[in-house]
Amino acid sequence: MSDNSLRLVWVYPDLLSTYGDQGNALVVERRARQRGLDVTRIDVRSDQPVPTSGDIYLIGGGEDRPQRLAAERLHRDGGLSRAVGNGAIVFSVCAGYQILGHEFVNDQGQRQAGLGLLDVVSTRGEGERCVGDVLADIDPRLGLPQLTGFENHQGVTHLGPSASAFAKVRMGRGNGTGDGTEGAFNGTVFGTYMHGPVLARNPLIGDLLLKLALDVNALPPADDRWYEALRAERIAAATQQPA
Ligand code: GLN
């Protein structure tokens, strides 16, 4: 980051924004402005090069065919991988998360190479699609409150040795491997299966991205009353027993 200016890059909104992923960009943008940062948001369509000079990159969820196209184009472009090589922060959701791994199974049933930015491999789950509300405890090293979100995926993601689980599910499937893990991270690269959009439901994850970008341990507090009310409502709804 230079001075007070933050470059926020939203990768491929034309392909990977099926689940209200713009909300994640809006949350990071707003929380950065609340802390006095001068934010430039760069929405990069899939026919444009991914800039390598961003501070934070967001990549969202999508259906199987757009996911294949996005992975092909990101490979060809190379910008996101170069940005990570420069120390950029990446937060990815569902299809975006699978693309950041070594490989996933595409809409044609073929194993397709991901970007290898996270040590994970996604296969096609044999069982029912993972759909529903999730509550999970985020890795305590990240210092974040409980994660809430909504999952909707067929892929199952296996973590390799250099990836840490982002969270452990209390409710829901997460990575779908049956080991209770949800998402993955390594350094400044994060992946999760949580929609919601996840940063609107868990704004302190947005703050974590800002702290990493600013290289600080704390940020001035933000007014979180609306977020807290939404979180309380979602947690109550998720834990309610069916009648
Ligand atoms: N197509 C992927 C899957 O089903 C990702 C879906 C998504 O982004 N929600 O696993």
UniProtKB/TrEMBL annotation:
Protein's recorded name: Lipid II isoglutaminyl synthase (glutamine-hydrolyzing) subunit GatD
Family annotation (PROSITE patterns): GATASE_COBBQ
Residues annotated as binding substrate: 129
Oligomeric form and interacting partners: Forms a heterodimer with MurT.
EC identifiers of the protein: 6.3.5.13, 3.5.1.2
Provenance organism: Streptomyces odorifer
InterPro entries tied to this protein: Class_I_gatase-like, CobQ_GATase1, GATase_3, Lipid_II_synth_GatD
Domain of life, per lineage: Bacteria
Function description: The lipid II isoglutaminyl synthase complex catalyzes the formation of alpha-D-isoglutamine in the cell wall lipid II stem peptide. The GatD subunit catalyzes the hydrolysis of glutamine to glutamate and ammonia. The resulting ammonia molecule is channeled to the active site of MurT.
Active site (catalytic residues): 94, 195
Stated family: Belongs to the CobB/CobQ family. GatD subfamily.
Biological processes annotated in GO: cell wall organization; cobalamin biosynthetic process; peptidoglycan biosynthetic process; regulation of cell shape
Catalytic activity: beta-D-GlcNAc-(1->4)-Mur2Ac(oyl-L-Ala-gamma-D-Glu-L-Lys-D-Ala-D-Ala)-di-trans,octa-cis-undecaprenyl diphosphate + L-glutamine + ATP + H2O = beta-D-GlcNAc-(1->4)-Mur2Ac(oyl-L-Ala-D-isoglutaminyl-L-Lys-D-Ala-D-Ala)-di-trans,octa-cis-undecaprenyl diphosphate + L-glutamate + ADP + phosphate + H(+); L-glutamine + H2O = L-glutamate + NH4(+)
SUPFAM superfamilies: Class I glutamine amidotransferase-like
Pathway field: Cell wall biogenesis; peptidoglycan biosynthesis
Signal peptide range in chain numbering: none
